[in-house]
Write a structure and sequence with these properties.
This protein has about 375 residues and is of the alpha/beta class. It has twelve helices and ten strands. The strands form two sheets. Strands 1, 2, 3, 4, 5, 6, 7 and 8 form an eight-stranded mixed β-sheet that branches. Strand 5 and strand 6 form a beta hairpin.
Length: about 375
Amino acid sequence: MKRTELFRPTLGAAELAAIKEVFDSGWIGYGPRCEGVERSWAFSVGARHGIATNSCTSALQIALRLRGVGPGDSVIVPTVTFAATAEAVMACGATPIFCDVYPDTLLIDIDSLEGKLLPRLKAIIVVLYAGQPFDLGDSFQGIPIIYDCAHAAGSSFDAAGKLCCWSFQAVKNLGCGDGGMVTTDSDFDQARGKTLCWHGITRSTWDRSSGKHYTWDYDVSEPGIKGQMNDITAAILSVQIGRMGELQAARRSIAYQYLRELRDVPVVGTPEHYDRSSWHLFVIKSDRRNELADYLGSQGIVTGVHYRPLHLHTAFRGTTSLPVAEAEWQKILSLPIHAGLKAHDVSRICELIHEFKATKEMDAAA
């Protein structure tokens, strides 16, 4: 039986050739290729600066530090997101305060923030779930906004004037194994962020070795993290950025085929977002979600659930009740979507969903 994967990276000869160039150069740590992707990615999303990191988790930690988040502080986080969003807050010694989401998009429900603007509240993280653009500006009632754009590479989201964190992990729209980026328009944020990313060291190893003589002279200005990208990863990412138009066109074509062939199936998202989304996820809703997932799995179709709300996990559990997220997550199912998926694969998945739906409707009628 043919297996249809939920996600799959789209890599080829160009990425291999880029890796070989790095090997041949003799420099595989943070270096010129990282600096290159910092410039190219920032330009592509409308920002002035990029800070290349080893993951979006590291990017989030740096962004939080740039906004002064530390022990005893709190940060608002939508509960429907990957664990890393909240874990980055906790890594700074702060507490994530979970809030609810809108039922149609699973994006942060700003109305549910009422009553959560606490005295030690330092930031709000807005997650661009599934790649849907969502803009709260750079602050909300005076509280700084940090955008978790892990799903948003390839969307039309404009990063100008905002502090954004991006993911290039293996199964993201642009995948390089693992990697991330902070984008900002602030010269100060860029300079401090690059220092925080490299243990608080004021001069990178690449900078100190690029002159006529290697110098060991540097200062540790404040405690940082080991968060830098390396040139092997950056070489792959550089090629992927160059292919973004091609890869995104394929994803959008798949998403619109799903929308056509599943017209009577509820989809997470709204038409106003369709043309602007990165379509990192294609998420449908079913009151028989678990049965549908099992049925598709029996036919070789891999599906997923993005996500069980964080406040329901042991590590984050508290007394919070977030009714929309608690209801909606039990219905959502992510269908396969990646640039290597073919039209006939999508049609087969849609046919199986219609078969399942018809069978269950007949069962209910009986």
